[in-house]
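hiii, so i know i said id send this last week but things got crazy w the move. better late than never?? heres the sequnce for the chain we talked about at the cafe, plus the structure i predicted for it. fair warning i was half asleep when i ran it
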Amino acid sequence: MPEKIYKLFIMDIFNSLSVIVVFLPLIFAISMLIARVKFVLINKTILNYGLYLINIINLILVSISAYFIYVQNKTFNFGLNCFDFSFNLLADKNNILFLITASIFYFLVNVFVIRFFITKKQFLFTKQRYYILFSLLISNTYLFLCSPNILQCLVFWFVQSLIILIFSYFDIFKIGTKVNITRFLRINLLGDFAFLVAYVLFFKYAILQEPLIESTSIAIKNINLFFSYLIGISSIGEYKFALIMLLIAVFSRLIIFPFSCYYSFFANSSSVLYLPIMICANNILGAYLYLNICPMFDYFPDAKMFIYTVSLITIITSLIFITYEKNIKIIYGYLLSIINAVFISIVLFNKYSVFIYFGLLFVLLLILMNLFSKDKNNIKRKVLNKFTGFYLEKFNIFVFEKVPYKLANILTLVNKYFFKILFGLGNKITDTANTFFVIKSSKASKITIIRTVFLVFTLFVVFIILAILFRRIDFG
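okay and structure toks below
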């Protein structure tokens, strides 16, 4: 009995410690933000090495949690209920690998950032602002991975887009960043909107299935069961549409064609911005969402051909256009596209290929850290010294810049010269008709009014009779 109590006590401790992994970076960010607002001078050691220490603690705690989850088959769960609001965090076999990967990657990036700030002196407020946003990005990644249901995932997916927007706006050098933030913001917003549309469809059927499943939360651990119910009662068209929306959200994070212009827009950003967003946040969130929606392919296997086609196009275009580039960030962006394209195809056959995928990302991160540490931003020469390497980027700029801009102008003109005139004319006709009938009614005798009412009633009865007689005729 004492041994059982001891085990429960140990589990309660680690269950509480697992929450620290998520909230330690957030607490650090909030404390830095408060000090920034109040203009309080922060100890340089805390500023330079505070987040580094937090990442070490998180890495240790996540590793211990992985031991309990895989060896002792435990699950860590934290719930908070306040004012009818339920907030839960979950660590199990489904997400512990991603938590370990995130903690390792962010730890390595933090090491690079420390070295970067030592070699390239920055103002105190500049470093403070960077660490605030970097801590928020880390905490939000953990919150997304530990979310037990699709709704919480959606919320933190949105939050990541907001953090990236602010992060890019306050980039450490601000060289060309303001020109580019609108471009990759549109890509993020398109992915966010697609995820939202898919969730709305899911929520619709979750409510219909409430007697059959536990709740309408659409839990991650029961996602396969939910998909089986979804394909059972939804139309095949809506099921396919939801899957396509989710794939668009995944493609927007994994820079899969036609979203492969995402990394090139970061080419003018600083290295300390490029690493955590391109290597860590985007890939981890995109891969996690993709792995959790893979069971949808079991009920719609033809969609795999769509994945293979898009992956093949991504690989071919990336291999072609990588030969025309000198910028290291763009080159490694193409490599990221190739790795992600191979990953989303192979993982459909073998889910354990995710280990190889993270291994490749790990190697890529180390190489980039080494190159950026040596201020290596460009290679000496292109493989093909031609100026045709801009075709793909021109295509993406046309899709994500010129088309939305032209479409917005067209809609504005249509609204100004068509809808306003049309509805304005309709309102004038209605007002004139109302005035006419009111005047006629006021001047007409009682017999005329009764006759008019009787005529309208007769026409209504005739319409009902015709509808009954010809109810089997399809007029649509």
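btw Residues 471-476 have pLDDT under 50 and may be disordered. thought thatd interest u
miss u guys!!
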